[in-house]
Design goal:
17 helices; alpha+beta; four-stranded antiparallel beta sheet
Length: about 575
Amino acid sequence: MAAPKKGRRQSAPGKPGRSLVFILIALVALTGGMFLSGNTTPRLGIDLAGGTSITLQAKNEPGQKNAINPTNMNTAVSIINNRVNGLGVSEAEVQTQGEENIIVNIPKGTNEKQAREQVGTTAQLYFRPVLTVAPGEPTPEPSASSSGKGTDKDKATEKGEDKATPSSTPTATPTSQGRAVTDGLKADATPSPKSSDKGGDKDKAAPTPTPSADPATAALQKKFTALDCTDKAQRAKVGDGIKPSEQSIACGKNNAGQWEKYVLGPAELNGKDVDDAKATISQQSGAWVVNMDFTGGGSKKFSKTTSKLSQQQPPMNQFAIVLDGEVASAPSVNTTLSANAEISGSFTQESAQDLANILSYGALPLTFHEQSVTTVSPALGGEQLQAGLIAGAIGLALVIIYLVVYYRGLSLIAIASLLASAALTYTLMTLLGPAISFTLNLPAVCGAIVAIGITADSFIVFFERVRDEVREGRTLRPAVERAWPRARRTILVSDFVSFLAAAVLFVVTVGKVQGFAFTLGLTTLLDVVVVFFFTKPLMTLMARKPFFANGHKWSGLDPKRLGAKPPLRRTRRATAPVDPKEA
């Protein structure tokens, strides 16, 4: 007897519970990450939160070419971002726009005039002699004495002697001053005898005085004593109102990563005196170093300055490289240097390149001009946000009403899918704020509203495929499994076209329009995730429930209402018995 042939097996429904558990775990993880990060709301752009938007345009100075390039623009963005954050604005945006523009978006709570002064000026780099070094915390008041003069100087001198020991060799004695740790500074070229002779006795007879020895700097000394470099707010304001030709105070980190405060003399050189700086590997030691080349005028200034400093005792034989009021490095000097210098020490490749970039950028003739300044009041931003939310709520309500009226019970699956998509979108937007500086602006809100229609369209495609199978006379469970492959192809093609349009729009546009494109692309990807891992498994589970499986009139799958054909059944022909006589 021949074995019966096995019929072709239909696609199995799989295990929908696993997919639902997966999407639930993802939601819990994203929500937990959102609360752990301390950010429970998306970052708002200035058009919704209010604030100031400044557009800066980079300009080449006469006689200079190719100064405006991606590397320098990115360096400028980093420096300007540090400046704006120094104002206490933790959610500011600084980004390039095109090849020559930088956009600075400062949310509400920042004085517009102060912000424009901070971001509209090219980064200032100065070389200042070090007069006093002390720990970053406020200095205790000295004990009473007859005159009070020299006390702070003696303390600073003792502190400097602990940090560095004078040496007569060309290579400077190790010191741990500075954010980029430096062990010394040495010349690549021999000192010029004329420059040394020219300084002569005058340099020896006129050592730079400490602030405490000069009555005119008593206020500066008092400010230095009270300065707390561990306080970010104080560091941001430490150099306010001080001119390059005046003594100043500044903060910087030492080799141990601890903050120290400095009293600095008038600036001897500035960033324009540096011709170039590169991070290289020393042929002698094999360690990373930073080589600096000065311009012709800068070389003369540097030689004169190092001639003075080499005759001083620590820490007054150091000079500070000051960028935007903060000490980036403070190497010691023990000999007169000329055109070329090398900063050596415990550098890594990254720290050496960072310091070289700082020095190089300070020397570049890259200036910025304000192209436009736009101010949005918090009230107007709040009104725009409210209008956007109302528009989104109206759109969502219309979609839900349509689903309930037309699909009845199936609308519950659609609404649950919309809620899952909304939860994923909200948590991702919140987490992307601190991660990639994503901000929710008005065009981004528009992208989210458009995404409601895209997500609803995917549900409609799937539901209509299922209904088509029911119209053909199939029961619900096989109808769902047969409809899914056809609906899946249509959904993927539709979402691919939407995502491709969003990607092209993001690449070819700038500014706020990119917010629309980014949000549209993000929600399109989430639509695929929700339909595959939530809507389809949920539909498979609901098909097992009698309410949907039996075609209740409120289920949205009533066979009579859909005009279904009679069930497809196989019948056998009745054959007449064979008459034995005829056989």
